[in-house]
Design a protein that fits this description.
Blueprint lengths: L4 H10 L14 H14 L21 E4 L2 E4 L3 H12 L4 E4 L14 E3 L4 H6 L6 H11 L6 H21 L3 E5 L8 E4 L5 H13 L3 E3 L4 E7 L2 E9 L2 E6 L2 E4 L8 H8 L17 H8 L4 E12 L7 H6 L5 E4 L15 H9 L4 E5 L1 H10 L17 H10 L10 E3 L2 H8 L3 H17 L20 E17 L6 E3 L5 E7 L19 H22 L1
Parallel strand pairs: 1-10, 2-3, 2-11, 3-7, 11-18
Antiparallel strand pairs: 4-6, 5-6, 8-9, 9-10, 12-16, 13-14, 14-16, 15-16, 17-18
Helix pairs in contact: 2-16, 3-7, 3-16, 6-16, 14-15
Length: 540
C-alpha cells in the first residue's frame, strides 16, 4: 500500500509529532563518487516539494550548535555502518540515537545475505547468478520490484562482507536456508550480536560523536537542500549543521496504527515489536522536507495471542504445520507454508477473520519429548520442548486479551471450537476429513507435504489463536537507486539519504525468506555506500 504524505503528517501532528526487530541501495563504487560530485554541482540549487498540507514540526531554537560533515539519524545496523563508512572516508560524523543503546534491530538477525563474498570463496561456495536471485524476487513480489535496486545491492553485497571482515566481524559459516542457495552468512555463534558489538567499537575508534537518548526531531533545510538536523538531548536542543544527512531510524513497526494503515494488517492482537521505539521518525522528517512516499511492507511472523517470545509456547504457536482452521471451521491453506516464509503464514492468517492452529494430545507429548517439526528462531527442529507443559498450563489460566485466550484445551473438537468461537459443526467435519487425508498420506485438498500430515485424534485437543508480530517495517521513503531521497517529481532532495528499514525498495509486498538475510545485508550495504557517498558529497 502506498503511503500518503498528507495522511502521515496529519497523523503525526495529532500524535504530537511521532515522538519517541533480520531479515536500501547505493551505487557501486565508481558511481558513488559521481553521485556526490553531481550533487555538489547542482543539488544546492534544487527545491524540495511542499509537504501537501500536513503540519510540519517547527524549527526549534537550539541550545547547542555543532558543525559536522555528516549527520546519521539512528544507530541500528544501517546507521552504524553509515557512520563508520562516512568517517572512514574523511567525514566528521555525528550520530543521533533516541534510545539508551546502539544496535536497534541489528541485534536480532542470525546472519546476512551476500554473494561472491570472501567467506564463500574461502569455503569453495559458488554463488548463484544475479538474474536468478532477482527473478525470484520479481515473482515473490508480484513483479513490483525494480531491477536497479536489487542489481546494485547484489553487486555490492560481497564487498559489504569483506568490509565487515576488515572491521573484525566474525562470519561463522555460509549455508542455505529454506532451500535457498548458499548465501546466508551466519554471525558468530549463529547470531549477529558480535557484528553489532564490533560496529559499536568502531564508532569509538573512529571518533564518531555518538549521542544516546537523543532523538532527532527535525531536519534543517535551506534553498531546497538538507543542511543539518535538530535533536533533543538531555542537555537541550542540539543543532548539527552538516552538508549531508542520512536517515536510518528503523522504520515504523512500533506504531500499530501505521502498520494497520500502511500495510493493511489487523493489529488487534499484534505483539509489541522487538524495537517499539521505531515509530516512523525518519519518514516524518523526510516528508516534512518534501520527500515522496514509497510502498511499505513488513517483515512479519505468526504468533499466538500474548507475548510469548523466548518460550516453548512461541515455538509451537508460530506457524508450525499443524491443522489450521478459520472462523468457519474450515482449512484455508496448506499448513506447511511456514517452510517457505513466515510472512506468507501471516498473510494467509490475516486473510481470515479468525485463524487457529490445532493439535492433539499425542502431538503434545511428541512436542515435549521430541520437539517441533520446524525451527523457530534459535530453537532447532526436533529439540525437546521441556518447558511446554508448564507454559501451556500458565497460558490456560491467563486472563483473556481483547476477548481471546492465550491457549485453548478441550476433550472434544466440538468443545474446542466452541471455546475458540468458530463453527463447531464445520470444525468437526474438517478434522474428520483432515484425519482421512493423514491416513492416506496424501493431502488431496491442499497439497500439504506428507511428512507434515499430523493427525488430530487423541484428546485433549489444543488450540491457539494465530496473530501477528511485525519484526520490522520495510520502506516508506522514496529513494533513487543510490539511496538519495526524492520528491514527488522524482527529483533528488540534495543532501538527504535514506536506507535500511526507512527506505527499502527491494521488497514491495513481503520479505522473501528464499533470499535469506536480505534485509540485514541491505542495511549493511546501504549504510556502507550511503556513508561513503555522503562523505564525498560533503567534501566536494
Amino acid at each position: 500500500m502506498e503511503i500518503t504524505r498528507r495522511n502521515f503528517l496529519t497523523g503525526a501532528a495529532a500524535m504530537g509529532g511521532l515522538a519517541a526487530f533480520g531479515l536500501a541501495g547505493c551505487a557501486p563504487k565508481g558511481a558513488q563518487a559521481d553521485t556526490g560530485e553531481a550533487l555538489a554541482e547542482t543539488g544546492r540549487e534544487a527545491s524540495a516539494t511542499a509537504t501537501e498540507g500536513g503540519e510540519v514540526t517547527p524549527e526549534p531554537t537550539p541550545d547547542i550548535t555543532i558543525d559536522v560533515d555528516v549527520v546519521v539519524i539512528g544507530g541500528g545496523a544501517s546507521g552504524l555502518c553509515a557512520a563508520i563508512s562516512a568517517a572512514q572516508n574523511g567525514a566528521k560524523v555525528i550520530l543521533f540515537e533516541k534510545q539508551a543503546q546502539l544496535g536497534g534491530n541489528g541485534m536480532m538477525p542470525e546472519g546476512l545475505f551476500a554473494v561472491n563474498s570472501p567467506k564463500q570463496a574461502e569455503l569453495g561456495i559458488e554463488s548463484p547468478r544475479k538474474i536468478d536471485i532477482i527473478a525470484n524476487e520479481f515473482q515473490f513480489n508480484n513483479f513490483r520490484i525494480t531491477y536497479d535496486y536489487w542489481s546494485n545491492y547484489i553487486d555490492g553485497s560481497g564487498e559489504s562482507v569483506a568490509w565487515l571482515l576488515d572491521l573484525g566481524v566474525v562470519i561463522e559459516r555460509v549455508e542455505s536456508m529454506f532451500g535457498s542457495p548458499e548465501v546466508f552468512h551466519y554471525g558468530e555463534g549463529g547470531h549477529c550480536e558480535q557484528m553489532i558489538e564490533t560496529l559499536i567499537a568502531a564508532t569509538d575508534t573512529l571518533g564518531i560523536d555518538v549521542h544516546l537518548n537523543t532523538p532527532a526531531i527535525r531536519l534543517k533545510q535551506e534553498d531546497g537542500a538538507v543542511v543539518g538536523a535538530y535533536a533533543e538531548s538531555p542537555e537541550g536542543i542540539i543543532l548539527a549543521n552538516a552538508k549531508a544527512v542520512i536517515l536510518t531510524s528503523g522504520g515504523f513497526s512500533g506504531d500499530t496504527e501505521k502498520v494497520r494503515e500502511l500495510v493493511g494488517y489487523d493489529t488487534t492482537y499484534m505483539q509489541t515489536p522487538p524495537n517499539p521505539a521505531n515509530v516512523g521518525d525518519g519518514m516524518r522528517m523526510a516528508f516534512e522536507m518534501g520527500a515522496a512516499s514509497a510502498p511499505a511492507a513488513c517483515l512479519t511472523a505468526s504468533r499466538s495471542v500474548g507475548d510469548v517470545r523466548g518460550t516453548d509456547l512461541f515455538v509451537i504457536s508460530a506457524g508450525q504445520p499443524f491443522l489450521w482452521l478459520n472462523e468457519l471451521g474450515h482449512r484455508y491453506v496448506w499448513e506447511d507454508l511456514g517452510t517457505q516464509s513466515m510472512t506468507l503464514v501471516v498473510r494467509a492468517n490475516m486473510a481470515q477473520k479468525k485463524a487457529f492452529s490445532i493439535f492433539d494430545g499425542e502431538e503434545f507429548e511428541r512436542l515435549c519429548n521430541e520437539g517441533a517439526p520446524l525451527k523457530r528462531y534459535r530453537t532447532l527442529a526436533h529439540t525437546p520442548l521441556t518447558n511446554l507443559a508448564d507454559e501451556i498450563e500458565q497460558a490456560l489460566e491467563a486472563p483473556e486479551i481483547e476477548g481471546a485466550k492465550l491457549a485453548y484445551r478441550a476433550d472434544t473438537i466440538e468443545e474446542l471450537a466452541e471455546q475458540m468461537g468458530i463453527d463447531a459443526e464445520e470444525a468437526v467435519k474438517s478434522v474428520e476429513r483432515y484425519n482421512e487425508l493423514c491416513e492416506k498420506g496424501v493431502d488431496e485438498d491442499f497439497g500439504k507435504a506428507a511428512e507434515y500430515l499430523i493427525p488430530v485424534k487423541t484428546p485433549p485437543f489444543y488450540g491457539f489463536r494465530e496473530t501477528l508480530e511485525c519484526q520490522t517495517s520495510l520502506g516508506g521513503i522514496d529513494i533513487d537507486p543510490f539511496n538519495l531521497v526524492v520528491d514527488a517529481e522524482g527529483a533528488v532532495i540534495p543532501g538527504l539519504w535514506a536506507g535500511g528499514s526507512d527506505a527499502s525498495k527491494l521488497t514491495m509486498e513481503s520479505y522473501n525468506i528464499e533470499v535469506p538475510g536480505s534485509l540485514l545485508g541491505y542495511c549493511v550495504y546501504s549504510g556502507r555506500t550511503m556513508g561513503k557517498a555522503a562523505a564525498e558529497y560533503a567534501k566536494a
